[in-house]
Design goal:
alpha+beta, two-stranded parallel ribbon, 4 helices, Transpep_catalytic_dom, glycosyltransferase
Length: 236
């Protein structure tokens, strides 16, 4: 059972939640931010982060993806806390290999690999009043999905009403390059795990209950996640 905490809503990033961010849900400033200036400013290509990954390695993992239908720019890792870099970690769990576990308190998503390890990704999660927990599963998957704001979001943010019939896939689409739709008992929960190019959102609670990974991480997870994969969202 999915347990909602507070007035949990549905949909993707609720961008009015954070006063430091832009006012419109669809003004995705980081989608088109070039990474070259950010990487050049670092000048630290050979230095190691606190997690032991060099900046050069991180720049490769989060580099541009030019061969996509909509080419994805590199993530500006100067704005990305190294603790959220993708990495393999020790993770003891009774869940089967392949299970996705969301830890909203620490802003991580884990893919259980078995043998006591997991692939860990940094994430953004639901903001206060939009958190939930429980078991679900991946009911369907999509690349460059059409985004349709739920009625609840349209009521909260009337500016999204113009997309009531759907916003086509693309860099400005809130679902990004890849989407995993979460189901329970055959019904869509209205929650997703989606791709974001907003580097500064990782490690924050800003969504209406959905979970976002950087585009490069989401593509990595998506490629290894079949339909029917179990998803466990831990209590915040």
């Amino acid at each position: 059972m999915i347990t909602n905490v507070g007035n949990a809503g549905a949909g993707t990033v609720d961008e009015n939640a954070d006063g430091r961010r832009r006012a419109g849900v669809l003004d995705r400033r980081s989608f088109l931010v070039g990474s070259a200036a950010g990487l050049g400013a670092l000048g630290l290509a050979g230095c190691a982060t606190s997690d032991g990954m060099s900046v050069a390695e991180a720049a490769k993992i989060y580099g541009p993806v030019p061969d996509e239908k909509f080419p994805i720019p590199a993530a500006d890792i100067s704005k990305f806390d190294p603790k959220y870099y993708r990495r393999t970690v020790r993770y003891d769990t009774k869940e089967a290999a392949g299970t996705i576990i969301v830890d909203p308190s620490n802003f991580y998503v884990y893919r259980v690999e078995g043998d006591g390890s997991a692939t860990r990704y940094g994430a953004n999660v639901g903001r206060d009043g939009f958190r939930w927990s429980g078991d679900a599963y991946v009911g369907r998957k999509a690349e460059w999905a059409t985004w349709t704001p739920p009625k609840e979001m349209i009521r909260r943010q009337p500016e999204t009403a113009k997309y009531a019939r759907g916003m086509p896939g693309g860099l400005e689409n809130p679902l990004g390059a890849r989407t995993l739709y979460l189901y329970q008992n055959g019904a869509y929960t209205l929650y997703t795990i989606y791709a974001s190019s907003d580097v500064e959102s990782i490690g924050s609670g800003i969504t209406s209950g959905c979970v976002g990974l950087l585009s490069q991480d989401m593509m990595h997870l998506y490629s290894r996640t079949p339909v029917k994969t179990k998803v466990v969202v831990l209590p915040a």
